[in-house]
Amino acid sequence: FNPNWSRQMTILQESRSAPGFCLLKGSFSFHCHQVFAPGGFCYVSVNWSKSLVSTNSILMLPLYFLVCLFFVCVFVFAELLLDILREKPQEADGIDSVVVVDNVPQVGPERLEKLKNVIHKIFSKFGKITTEFYPEADGMTKGYIFLEYAAPTQALEAVKNADGYKLDKQHTFRVNLFTDFDKYMTISDEWETPEKQPFKDFGNMRHWIEDPDCRDQYSVIYEAGERTAIFSNDAKEPITAEERARWTETYVRWSPKGTYLATFHQRGIALWGGEKFKQIQRFSHQGVSLIDFSPCERYVVTFSPLMDTKEDPQAIIIWDILTGQKKRGFHCESSAHWPIFKWSHDGKFFARMTQDTLSIYETPSMGLLDKKSLKISGIKDFSWSPGDNIIAFWVPEDKDIPARVTLMQLPSRQEIRVRNLFNVVDCKLHWQRNGDYLCVKVDRTPKGTQGVVTNFEIFRMREKQVPVDVVEMKDSIIAFAWEPNGSKFAVLHGESPRINASFYHVKNNGKIELIKMFDKQQANSIFWSPQGQFMVLAGLRSMNGALAFVDTSDCTMMNIAEHYMASDVEWDPTGRYVVTSVSWWSHKVDNAYWLWTFQGRLLQKNNKDRFCQLLWRPRPPTLLSTDQIKMIKKDLKKYSKIFEQKDRLSQSKASKELVDKRRAMMEEYRRYRETAQQIYQEQKSIRLELRGGVDTDELDSNVDDWEEETIEFFINEEIIPLGDL
Amino acid sequence: MRAVWCVDCDWDTKNVLTGSADNSCRLWDCETGKQLALLNTNSAVRTCGFDFSGNIIMFSTDKQMGYQCYLNFFDLRDPQQIEDNQPYLSIPCNDAKITSAVWGPLGEFVNAGHENGEINQFSAKSGEILKKAKEHSRQINDIQTSVDLTMFISASKDNTAKLFDSTSLEHIKTFKTERPVNSAAISPIMDHVVMGGGQEAMEVTTTSTRIGKFEARFFHAAYEEEFGRVKGHFGPINCVAFHPDGKSYSSGGEDGYVRIHYFDPQYFDFELEA
């Protein structure tokens, strides 16, 4: 609002509210009201107040007329003045609705009309363009234009949507508000360096990897969630690294490389790490219930069903772990298929699927890739390759267009493979852990039949043009799992009690070979060792914890065992140990976790009061090159000699410790018993008295109780012939 | 008329004492089966026993229907007490009721286990609490003495059994399991204890009942280590006891069976490495 204007008005006002000059005996006064509404509009109301005018003199009449005329003129003049003043162009006026568009093609007068039409078509989508200005120099347009909209909101829309618009290969529009230029140009030349934040030293975040005996850690939640402990895994018995009461309110999660432990609280989540598990970072998200990490451990995604408003999406928040900043919030209708945002393997992209849309975002800007989502009508499911920036998604049948699975390269969005599928009921995507293969489990109802059959479409990602092989399965599928870093997969199929476990090898020659099938298995889940080759077939929960340890190099059963009512199986990150556990969350008694070797030999049974969850701490990827690994494998015999010696030493130390402990306990017990015996002997007389002289100290101490009985035993028969007499 | 909760015989098996949920405690002649005395109570009789001499009996009554838990003492040498149903000593227990009780070695006191895991030593003469022990965190299901009465073992719902000195109530050993322990006994001839237990009767469902799942467990008394288990029951074990000669033991279970096991010769030779 122009301060000069109001001052002028005040002057007018003042002059007008000066007491009216006196005419004759009466007095005139009038005052003028100005009401200035926020829009710069103003309305003026004028009140006349006339006091009595003497009507005595007829002479006065023309004078009155003149005076009235005068006032009317003044009034009109004032009004006009106001109008003019109102329309005085102000710097702020209209500027907010102006946008500047850069990277406009420079054209000569002959193509100017066409250019104007194109610009008009594009930019009138956002509002009514009231003015346009195409500055020229030397007969060509300069390459930037000014557009004025009817309202500032329309200008904002134009900036939001047209900025970055690709007109053609050489011209991508940059759209800015005119006022922004001013804003950025008037930035002070003086710059204050931001205050230096003190460096928070959390110590060596990878401290646990440096354990001299290469013990892996795992977290255990027990006492129904009251206590959380971190143990170092030793074959003899777990070594406590940290133990805290009420560390988390629900459960815990490790970050993908094992650096952080995340705990849940009503107000948000906390990340802990370093040697002493200090609190590294805290993220405030009321009512958080689910989290997910980016694979690079740079970001964490939290979900809370509580906080969400239309203007400020808060259901899902993405945070930067190192700075603790909130990067972006999103709406979320349901958390049924968590994680909603799926990350690419390198953390460069994350994507989510909504009705008919696939939205891919890039980091660190957290903006949509290419500024827009992909419209994929009917998209049912998608997933990232764990090895490359490739997304696989599938859409079901649509009238006469068959269902298809598509592989799309990011960020180019090039479709590198499309596979049509017919009579599809459902599809599930299973990637091999290195991204070498994709298995699409297709449930189909072939024409003319009622039943559902399943095929596995195996995509060979590493071969040119991604050939696809099909494996047909006769029974219903219970479970499917790829060997983590190999080319085998295992399938559980059939119906209880005839459940079969089949192992397939995807060979280089284009064939997929069935290596072995075990029938009548008690299993409903497959757990491969993270290093491949070994695996556990488990019958969890309703199958009462049947376990089968398999070596898939020759498909032999190494051991068949049982952990009654086991609810979970977890391999350690090195593939040496397996933990089976009975969680209090699924079964209220016998809560414990058992430690096995990868061959199925039981090492430990650890009972924990109301044991809930065990999670191994993941390891960061190895720093060794493939050549170095080869060298170590070559020299393995040398290393194993040293390790065996070490093991034997610690073994004998352990048994020595145990033996010493037992000896001490026995001595203590003996001492106690001797003292007690002494007192017992001293009390003998009292005992005799209480029982009327009968000695009952020993079972056979009461002579009166003895009975004599003579028994004859047949010992020998000797026949002596009497014939010689 | 109703369930018999406890039974005990005196040292030369002349008389038998029983306590029942029909609110009575009865004395019987063991040879003839004739009822010698009837003592009515206000609530169920939970535990009973003869003292070392066989002259004094004690029994405890449950906390039921407004009546408190009492520990009553009768002197059998005084027929008047029996006739009038007037114990010479009646100790009220205000808080947790008594769940199991045994006499001390010379009949001067009774060691009682309570519903809250406490063990109190009540004088049989004055009724005052001579000693206390709060070692268990949950209900004590059973107390049994060693053959010379110098020690006793308490079996508790908190998944442990503990060995105490009868006179000082000093806590000597603890034996840990992962199931509630219903009963425990001390071997008369070896340094062994046997324990039986199982899930709460309520928690046993048809899916988890497995044949022979409930086991009697043997622990070494000095090392507190389990060295053996005997399967066979298919319901929780409610009671275990050693034969006085230590060559066999018996167990009774929820499944309605009493099992008697005789030990192999190897049992007597077995030793943990020490």
TrEMBL record, chain A:
Annotated membrane-spanning segments are 58-82
Q: Where in the cell is it found?
A: Cytoplasm, Stress granule
GO BP field: formation of cytoplasmic translation initiation complex
Q: Which SMART domains would you find in this protein's record?
A: RRM (SM00360)
**Where does the record place the RRM domain?**
97-180
Q: Which SUPFAM superfamilies match?
A: RNA-binding domain, RBD, Tricorn protease domain 2
Matching InterPro entries: EIF3B (IPR011400), eIF3B_RRM (IPR034363), Nucleotide-bd_a/b_plait_sf (IPR012677), RBD_domain_sf (IPR035979), RRM_dom (IPR000504), TIF_beta_prop-like (IPR013979), WD40/YVTN_repeat-like_dom_sf (IPR015943)
Q: Which keywords does UniProt give here?
A: Cytoplasm, Initiation factor, Membrane, Protein biosynthesis, Repeat, RNA-binding, Transmembrane, Transmembrane helix, WD repeat
Which PROSITE patterns does the record match to this protein?
A: RRM (PS50102)
Q: Which Pfam families match?
A: eIF2A, RRM_1
Q: Which GO terms describe its molecular function?
A: RNA binding; translation initiation factor activity; translation initiation factor binding
GO cellular component terms listed in the entry, alphabetical order: cytoplasmic stress granule; eukaryotic 43S preinitiation complex; eukaryotic 48S preinitiation complex; eukaryotic translation initiation factor 3 complex
Summarize subunit and interaction data from the UniProt record for this chain.
Component of the eukaryotic translation initiation factor 3 (eIF-3) complex, which is composed of 13 subunits: EIF3A, EIF3B, EIF3C, EIF3D, EIF3E, EIF3F, EIF3G, EIF3H, EIF3I, EIF3J, EIF3K, EIF3L and EIF3M. The eIF-3 complex appears to include 3 stable modules: module A is composed of EIF3A, EIF3B, EIF3G and EIF3I; module B is composed of EIF3F, EIF3H, and EIF3M; and module C is composed of EIF3C, EIF3D, EIF3E, EIF3K and EIF3L. EIF3C of module C binds EIF3B of module A and EIF3H of module B, thereby linking the three modules. EIF3J is a labile subunit that binds to the eIF-3 complex via EIF3B.
Give the family this protein belongs to, as stated in its UniProt record.
Answer: Belongs to the eIF-3 subunit B family.
What's the stated role of this polypeptide?
Answer: RNA-binding component of the eukaryotic translation initiation factor 3 (eIF-3) complex, which is required for several steps in the initiation of protein synthesis. The eIF-3 complex associates with the 40S ribosome and facilitates the recruitment of eIF-1, eIF-1A, eIF-2:GTP:methionyl-tRNAi and eIF-5 to form the 43S pre-initiation complex (43S PIC). The eIF-3 complex stimulates mRNA recruitment to the 43S PIC and scanning of the mRNA for AUG recognition.
Q: What is the protein named?
A: Eukaryotic translation initiation factor 3 subunit B
UniProt lists the gene as eif3ba
TrEMBL record, chain B:
This entry's Gene Ontology molecular function terms read:
RNA binding; translation initiation factor activity
- InterPro entries noted in UniProt: eIF3i (IPR027525), WD40/YVTN_repeat-like_dom_sf (IPR015943), WD40_repeat_CS (IPR019775), WD40_repeat_dom_sf (IPR036322), WD40_rpt (IPR001680)
Q: Which UniProt keywords apply?
A: Cytoplasm, Initiation factor, Protein biosynthesis, Repeat, WD repeat
Instruction: Give Gene Ontology CC terms.
Output: eukaryotic translation initiation factor 3 complex, eIF3m
Keyword Transferase in record: no
Cited function: Component of the eukaryotic translation initiation factor 3 (eIF-3) complex, which is required for several steps in the initiation of protein synthesis. The eIF-3 complex associates with the 40S ribosome and facilitates the recruitment of eIF-1, eIF-1A, eIF-2:GTP:methionyl-tRNAi and eIF-5 to form the 43S pre-initiation complex (43S PIC). The eIF-3 complex stimulates mRNA recruitment to the 43S PIC and scanning of the mRNA for AUG recognition.
Q: What is the official name of this protein in its record?
A: Serine-threonine kinase receptor-associated protein
Q: Which organism is it from?
A: Sphaeramia orbicularis
